[in-house]
Every structure is written in C-alpha cells, then in structure tokens.
C-alpha cells in the first residue's frame, strides 16, 4: 500500500493582477497540447464564479493542458447575470452538483484531471472516487463525511448561513465583511474587497447544510469512498484559512490513510481561503502543476 505523504510548503507573495482575461469558453481545444495530456476541469466552490478560474486556465494552457471550467447548476455564464438571477441556483445540493460535473465530463471522451476549490474540492474527491477522473486536486476542500474537527473560525465563517435554516432552500449572498473574514483574512481588506467586487456570486445554501450535518446522516451527500481504487489525489490546506481551516483539510487527508492509492497533502502556511484568486494564486497554481508533473501529468514548472 502506498502511504500518503505530507509536505509542508509556504508560497511567496509576488503580486499579480487580479483581473485576468475575459471569461474563457469551456472547450478542451488548446494549441500546443502536451502529448496525451488529459484535459483539466476546474470546479469552483460557493461564492466564487466559474470565471474566477480564467487566470488558472491561461496558466495551465501555457503548460500544455486543455481546460474547462463549467458553471454550477443554475449559474449563468456571466457574473452579472448570475447576480441578477440568484434564485436560479436555489436548492441545489452536493449530489446534484456532482452529477452536473459528471455530465460535463462525459463528452470529453477521457478522464480529466479535476481541480476544485472549497466545495469544488469536495466534488472533485467524489468524482475521483467514482473513477470518472484521472487525478484530483482538492484545494481547501469542504469537509467530507467523517471529518469531525470543528474550529471556531469555521463556525464563525458559516454562521451567517447556517444560523437561518431557511437558507437551506435559498441562495445566499455574502456581505463584503463576511467575505473578508471567511475568504480574505490573510490579505489586505482592500484586496479582499476588490476580489469580492470582481469574482463573487450568490450561491445555494444547501451544500453547506449537507456538509455541516454529514456526520449525523449515514447516507450523507458529503460521503466520499476513501478506499476506492482510482487515480492520485492532492489535498492543499491553507494555513490561515477561516472557511476551511487547515486542521479540516489535514483531517480529510487522514481519512485516506488506508487507501490503496497515492494521496498527498501540502500545507500553504500563509494562505487563506482566497488563495485561488488573490495576488498569490500563481504560486498555488504552480504548486499544482509541479505535483501533476510528479504524478506523470505534464512537465514541472520552471522556477
């Protein structure tokens, strides 16, 4: 049995523009593809739009991967339209979202690499366990069933949603202050507000309720088969994360301790939940690219 490895890493703080390119089409067509490189599917979590992956898609495209970043069920292609039609996402849960992305995989004709953030990281693990993905990267993933740690910071991050049971059937919009605490606590408030204005959308409350009560429900949608035979998994934990504290990510990795597959863990010690969209995102993306190269997908990034 391959033992999971734990690597401690701290990334740098080189500034990069938040804007990124215009929203990219969901197409696996990218020039100069690496030979036999699987496509990479990016899956966002709650409160960030699918287009927040556009800078990552450009970077992965330059590394030889074709990419796609489908929207969630009910999410419009544009952030403006999603904000104006928030109720279109109401009521969707983990199972529906997972099935939605599995359907997006089917036309590809081969198993993709799935890279997910937050609840996208939970969905990525479910897709990998179902053996419809070649490999998965779960960045600050929402807790899967069996994770029992519950840090105070996480309770505070989720209270605005979980404090009202009616939110399980609604979409919820975070305030700038709530976003700054949950996502932007490791960056300046001005940068957090800029990210909020540029990338955030309303999101369904149901997945958060399902994850919060997963350990009370034997058939929880947050269940992941951690003993399945499938491709390699990387879990990335942000050391300063409030929404998904590093202890939660580490506990999720520990759930794979008996898995017959490769399961790696990297801590980005100085990063919060905004790590995929803040000024340090290129370092996080390169960490993922380097891990993929180590696992036989693509070439390592030049530093």
TrEMBL record:
Q: Per the database record, which ranges form the AB hydrolase-1 domain? A: 40-286
* InterPro entries associated with the record: AB_hydrolase_1, AB_hydrolase_fold, Carboxylesterase_BioH
Pfam families in the record, alphabetically?
Abhydrolase_6
Q: Which domain of life is it from?
A: Bacteria
| GO function terms (MF aspect) | catalytic activity
Q: What is this protein called?
A: AB hydrolase-1 domain-containing protein
Organism, scientific name: Prescottella equi ATCC 33707
Organism ancestry: Bacteria, Bacillati, Actinomycetota, Actinomycetes, Mycobacteriales
């Amino acid at each position: 049995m391959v033992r999971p490895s734990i690597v401690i890493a701290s990334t740098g703080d080189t500034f990069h523009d938040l804007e990124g390119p215009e929203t990219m089409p969901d197409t696996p067509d990218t020039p100069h593809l690496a030979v036999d490189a699987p496509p990479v599917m990016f899956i966002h979590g709650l409160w960030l739009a699918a287009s927040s992956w556009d800078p990552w898609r450009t970077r992965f495209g330059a590394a030889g991967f074709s990419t796609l970043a489908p929207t969630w069920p009910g999410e419009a292609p544009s952030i403006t339209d999603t904000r104006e039609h928030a109720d279109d996402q109401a009521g969707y849960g983990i199972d529906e979202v997972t099935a939605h992305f599995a359907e997006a995989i089917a036309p590809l004709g081969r198993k993709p690499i799935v890279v997910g953030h937050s609840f996208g990281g939970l969905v990525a693990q479910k897709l990998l366990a179902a053996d419809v993905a070649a490999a998965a990267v779960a960045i600050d993933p929402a807790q899967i069933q069996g994770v029992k740690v519950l840090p105070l910071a996480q309770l505070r991050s989720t209270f605005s949603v979980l404090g009202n049971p009616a939110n399980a059937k609604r979409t919820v919009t975070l305030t700038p202050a709530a976003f700054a605490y949950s996502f932007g606590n490791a960056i300046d408030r001005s940068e957090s507000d800029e990210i909020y204005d540029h990338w955030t959308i309303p999101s369904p409350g149901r997945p958060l309720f399902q994850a919060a009560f997963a350990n009370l429900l034997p058939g929880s949608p947050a269940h992941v088969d951690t003993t399945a035979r499938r491709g390699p998994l990387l879990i990335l934990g942000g050391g300063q994360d409030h929404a998904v504290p590093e202890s939660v990510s580490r506990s999720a990795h520990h759930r794979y301790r008996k898995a017959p597959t490769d399961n790696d863990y990297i801590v980005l010690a100085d990063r919060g939940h905004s790590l995929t969209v803040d000024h340090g995102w290129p370092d996080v993306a390169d960490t993922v690219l380097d891990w993929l190269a180590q696992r036989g997908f693509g070439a390592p990034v030049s530093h």
